[in-house]
Amino acid sequence: MTTNQRFNVAVLPGDGIGLEVMEPAVEVLKAVQAKLGGFELSFSDHECGAGLYKKTGDALPQDLVEKIGAADAMLVGAMGLPDVRYPDGREITPQVDLREIFGLYGGVRPAKALKGVPPVLADPRAADIDFVLIRESTEGLFVGRKKAERIGNEIARDTMEITRNTSEKLFHFSYQLAQQRKAKGKPGRLTCVDKANVLGSTAFFRQIFDEVGEQYPDIERDYGYIDAVAMNFVKKPWTYDVLVTENMFGDILSDLAAGLIGGLGFAPSADIGDRQAVFQPCHGTAPDIMGQGKANPTATILSAAMMLDWLGETHDLQACRDGAALIDNAVADAFATGGLKSFELGGEAGTRAIADAILERIA
Ligand code: ATP
Ligand code: MG
């Protein structure tokens, strides 16, 4: 008799619509566990973000960092509110702090077109959009976010930092992801997105991309300058397989990628490190629609699927991988056959309607 492998999931709903989209995501995970068995999830809820800061003056307390860091995975909603800020005016963004604290260098942002979600691009090939953007999430142009340099009232400067250590890990991770996709019939191509012709830091990034690539002869190495890739995302995004880039370039490109597949409500993400990983939708707390039941929970539900897939990969547990596939298929079918049009696309399907359509297909 084998016993189910048990995973502790730290749940941090956060603020705004984070709270609204987390509830159905946890419901979906519980439904998958009940349906498939083979693994067991136990959830612990934690308050974190702007709401907590308002109450206690600390958005991400140290004891919470220790608690959630010891969990098997972290599932995060969205954090920060426009009217709650640190005394220096910076926004409250514990989700960014988590990436730095736990060294979550691999920001995985899949963009896959869903049938039934009206494509943004007129070209019929837009239905074939299926790429993964990997955004380095701990350094690059974000290293200066707490210490932008000001020289009097005349000059301001940020620093772009690329390290060999993080880049090597990032590229191994990226090539391996391209290999996993290749095993499932994808092209097996990894595109390095940089500005190597202008910025020495990203020329170094590209150099390490090539060095690490020598160990992955089965993966085709491809290169694109950030400006050209931005244009190609609009002209022919269906040609991409896996892309890897620096933090700020990835921040911008991932919003563009989300736009291509219907909007932020459809864009999941994972931030992966050597030991920990955070799974969360790409979107923010959307104060303009919070409390109205209009938030699209799809991004968070797909992030929960990524969490199961990662648990399956890192623990070699097929039941978890199957759970991820079950969620992906339920989401795809809900939109393909459910006649759902989310509020962000001008329709009337709110959080509950979308969640119920997905849950129905899992049961
Ligand atoms: P952040 O600074 O945290 O990235 P942001 O200000 O860029 O946040 P979001 O909170 O992501 O913005 O919202 C951007 C727009 O997208 C808003 O109009 C919001 O209503 C919409 N939006 C974001 N997430 C969703 C969702 N899940 N469902 C529907 N609309 C959403
Ligand atoms: Mg944003």
UniProtKB/TrEMBL annotation:
It comes from the Bacteria. InterPro entries: ICDH/IPMDH, IsoCit/isopropylmalate_DH_CS, IsoPropMal-DH-like_dom. One of its GO terms (biological process) is L-leucine biosynthetic process. It holds the Pfam family Iso_dh. Residues 8-358 form the Isopropylmalate dehydrogenase-like domain. GO terms for molecular function: 3-isopropylmalate dehydrogenase activity; magnesium ion binding; NAD binding. Its EC number is 1.1.1.85. Keywords: Amino-acid biosynthesis, Branched-chain amino acid biosynthesis, Leucine biosynthesis, Magnesium, Manganese, Metal-binding, NAD, Oxidoreductase. Its cofactor is Mn(2+); Mg(2+). It is an enzyme of class 1 (oxidoreductase). SMART domains: Iso_dh. The keyword Iron does not apply. SUPFAM superfamilies: Isocitrate/Isopropylmalate dehydrogenase-like (SSF53659). Belongs to the isocitrate and isopropylmalate dehydrogenases family. LeuB type 1 subfamily. Homodimer. This is 3-isopropylmalate dehydrogenase.
